[in-house]
Structures are given as C-alpha cells and as structure tokens.
Amino acid sequence: MTAIYLSLGSNVERYKHIKSALDALANLLGDLTISSVYESKSIGFDGRNFFNLVVGAQTRFGIAELSDVLKRIEDENGRKRSGPKFSPRTLDIDILTYGDFVGVESGIELPRAEITKNAFVLLPLAEIAPQIRHPQLQKTYGELWQAYDQSSQSLWAIDFEWQGRKISTQH
Description:
Elements: E1 2-10, H1 14-29, E2 33-34, E3 38-40, E4 50-59, H2 63-76, E5 92-98, E6 103-105, E7 108-110, H3 114-117, H4 119-128, H5 141-147, E8 155-157, E9 160-162, E10 165-168
Antiparallel strand pairs: 1-4, 1-5, 2-4, 3-4, 3-8, 6-7, 9-10
Helix pairs in contact: 4-5
C-alpha cells in the first residue's frame, strides 16, 4: 500500500460535488483522512469561489491507474475538459503526492507543484499531515505552511458535513 494525498476542488454545485467525490473515494480507497473544507476566491479567472480540501489515503493503484480512476470520478460529476485550464469546475481531483515518488510518470509530475504555490492546497495538507515531509524539499508540510506568505491568498474554513459527521467548522 502506498500513502497518497489528493486535493479536491469545486466551484459548481460545490457541496454536491465534494460530497460525491468523498463518497467515491471512500468506496475506492477505504479510510480517508480528510482536512477541513476551505473556501477561497478563484485564481486565474473571474469565477465563483471554490471549496478545496485535501484527502489522505492508502492505495494499491499505480500512479497511472489512480489518475484514470480519479478522472472517471471527475467525469461522473460532470467535469468538462474542453474549456480553458482556468475555468469553473464541477470537480477537480489532483494527486499531490504518491508515497515518496519524485518525478514524472504517465505525464503526471509528482509531487505536484501546487503544494508550495497555493494556500488552498498547502494549508489543508499541513492540517492533516503536519509532520510528513515533502518528498523533494524534505521539509514538513507544517514547516512549509509556517514559511508560506499567508497573506498572499485568502481562504477560510467553512461548515461542512459528510455522511453525518462534521468535516469542518467555520472559523
């Protein structure tokens, strides 16, 4: 089994698609470690605010197979791939890390650069894996978050429930 971290995002019917993604991931991967759900403004285009979170899990899938399964979950949630890269999304699921793998496999560069670039990825990752080391930088996600310019992107935790349990609370 390999430890993975995934980022999830949606700015179209956000509650519906994030809950659907969590259902699909739980069915696929079993136990999930789930961060708080954060709301943030869209980056790169003018659009509705996003919900973002990070999920940790264990998988037997290889990177390519995992990517294919995640794309299928996105497609089942109405993801349109024909639009511009920065556009509204029903659901976006990205592999952030796959164990300690560093490199490119099946066109997927890991660890994903967004970890250190976007607060909506790094904060929830640091929340659920503060002592885990970035496989390339060898700093913990907690350390990376502390060093991050936290004034560069605004995000806030929201109230969110999934399968009858509170995932996050607004603060």
